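User: I'm writing a short report section on ligand binding and want a predicted complex to refer to. Could you take this sequence and uridine-5'-diphosphate and write out the structure as tokens? A short remark afterwards would be nice.
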Amino acid sequence: MSKRILVTGGAGFLGSHLCERLLAQGNDVLCVDNYFTGTKQNLAACLDNPRFELMRHDVTFPLYVEVDEIYNLACPASPIHYQHDPVQTTKTSVHGAINMLGLAKRTRAKIFQSSTSEVYGDPTVHPQVESYRGNVNPLGPRACYDEGKRCAETLFFDYWRQHKLRIKVARIFNTYGPRMHPNDGRVVSNFIVQALKGEDITLYGDGTQTRAFCYVDDQIEGWMRLVNDTPDDFTGPVNIGNPVEISMKQLAEAVLKVVGGKSKLVIARPLPVDDPLQRCPDITLAREKLKWEPKVPLEQGLKNTVEYFDGLLRGNNHVS
Ligand code: NAD
Ligand code: UDP
Ligand code: UDP
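Assistant: Sure. The structure tokens for the complex follow:
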């Protein structure tokens, strides 16, 4: 059955893939975005669809529309973007959550929140399980993002308890794929662009810090299972990510294997302040409740992403 679905932050990397998926299911999709990091070009495949609407709007301001479901993604996600205007980052997470929860309360819409592995901070429990309460520095340069997302989770659970909203909270771990922003400083995009240009691959610190990388299609499939295939009393939070943990040095080697070329690994700078040393999701809960696990191996996902960036650098794909 077709639904009216609002996607905030829909012009971004993950949002644009989500809009495509929701349209393919036959839904009406209203995308709102202030274009801070997102672009219309990301939505090229959606713009001609009569079921798609796009509105320039900042979620820190109220929004009155009639919808059945909300996916709340609006928020810059990469450290250089969320640290560019940290006050606006916190406002986006917190005021944005209040406005979207207020909207969900009035329309009785089901609402999905794109939370993050950053709620665990620099974790002391490994791999991270949903019951772990995290190790976040509330005063550091990452706090605007981490604490903003933590407060958003608090608001989701208070609206759920107080106003009986139907909420679905996903804790997203590092996700990559086509339409990542080439200049947002994230490690996968940096390494691929550097390798394609034959430049040095920039490790921060000694490259032994770890992450676990989920391909975008797997991530979106996890959200679909969470929102559509779990009973209303399953709220999450649930980790959605790929549990294959690798060091940044190993990632650089994997990128070089796909791209080829002569780039060298260099230690470009010390590890940034509060940069987590280890991160890997425990996805036992997602396996059990969503019957989901990632399917796309790193090498395949990197190949698809390299193809996208290669097109971008040759001027075949658009970017703002
Ligand atoms: P992105 O930067 O590509 O997308 C975010 C979108 O939100 C952009 O289109 C941006 O313009 C928009 N936006 C920002 N502030 C806004 C505001 N005030 N009002 C309206 N729109 C606004 O990032 P992404 O990787 O697609 O992330 C999407 C969501 O997923 C974010 O909430 C992010 O925190 C979360 N997330 C992503 C990852 C990841 O690895 N990509 C990991 C954890 C969580
Ligand atoms: N809101 C919105 N759209 C709606 C309903 C509410 O943007 O359709 C915003 C509005 O700014 C409000 C906030 O959501 O302040 C929280 O709504 P809620 O009903 O929880 O609280 P209120 O502040 O209205 O008492
Ligand atoms: N990183 C790196 N070289 C780069 C960009 C990032 O070594 O050119 C490191 C960064 O310090 C961090 C990891 O890669 O340890 C992942 O960084 P990213 O910004 O992609 O994601 P996050 O830190 O938010 O998980």
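A remark for your report: The pocket of uridine-5'-diphosphate (ligand 2) is lined by residues 62-64, 98-99, 102-103, 105-106 (CB under 6 Å). Residues 86-107 form the longest helix (22 residues).
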